[in-house]
Amino acid sequence: MKTLAFFNNKGGVGKTTLLYHLAWMFADLGKRILVADFDPQANLTSRFLSEPELEKLWDPDNPQNESVMASLSPVIRGLGDIAPTPVKHIEANIRLIPGDLELSNFESNLSEAWGNCLDCQEPAFRITSSFYRIIRQAAEEFDADLTILDVGPNFGAINRAALISADAVIIPVAPDLFSIQGLRNLGPALSDWRREWHTRLALNAASDLRLPEAVMQPLGYVVLQFGIRDSRPVAAYQKWARRIPGTFREKVLGEPSTGGQIPEKDENCLGLLKHYRSLIPMAVEARKPIFRLKPSDGAIGAHTHSVIDCGDDFRRLAHRILEALEMVNAH
Question: Which of 81, 126, 236, 316 is the most buried (most CB within 10 A)?
């Protein structure tokens, strides 16, 4: 089982839509998928669950908490280690560890524990590895082939603890200045987190405690929401699209940059996805991925071809990601 995180510290590029559709496509390809929503905004959870389900999930008066907070509550309250992981059955091949708006309350615990690991404190290692052990527990019970992690667009302690649990990282980008800046910041952050965690691993005094390896291998990037004209990005995006390959290579992979290359010709580009415009709200309303929309959902006329195209696009992307994951050394 491998763990794949999707991360960019620039928000608003369509990451949640990407994760949601890939989860369904991986499942359609026969993979058993565990989705873990570690973004305190919990947008991915709201895509999978209906409003009544969300209302029950986040009801403060409901003693039966079924979000990730149920696992973390004993740790946050200082009463013990993680509790059993609540998992939602989405479909035969998809399970969800639901996110929670209260997850941000865990930030200070993780921040303090990161420093205390340097003092060889076992509780600090238990706190820092909480996400990793929650994932492993749920994945083993479900016999998952792949775990997909969603995190927020920042460099906070929650994201650090989630990402050191990942075998590989995919970076969703848009061809704009903000995504380019996000790539410039992201590469060094991943490198620092990996180095700092490996320093702490050597200080772990609890030999029986299961800890992540912080592999976090950059798998590549996916370009989202680009304008389309004759199957190519429109001129307004060309300037930034051409900067993505070199910036990714230099800042994320730490390799010499190759100037002027376009994403379509870059081996690190896993795929380019259209915006799909009016089909996205239609899919949200139907609570299904775009490529599963039917005429009864409103996908008629020209939409029919777009639904088919979307399925083809995500199928190619899913296969490309699975092939790349096979090359990841998960130790």
Answer: 126
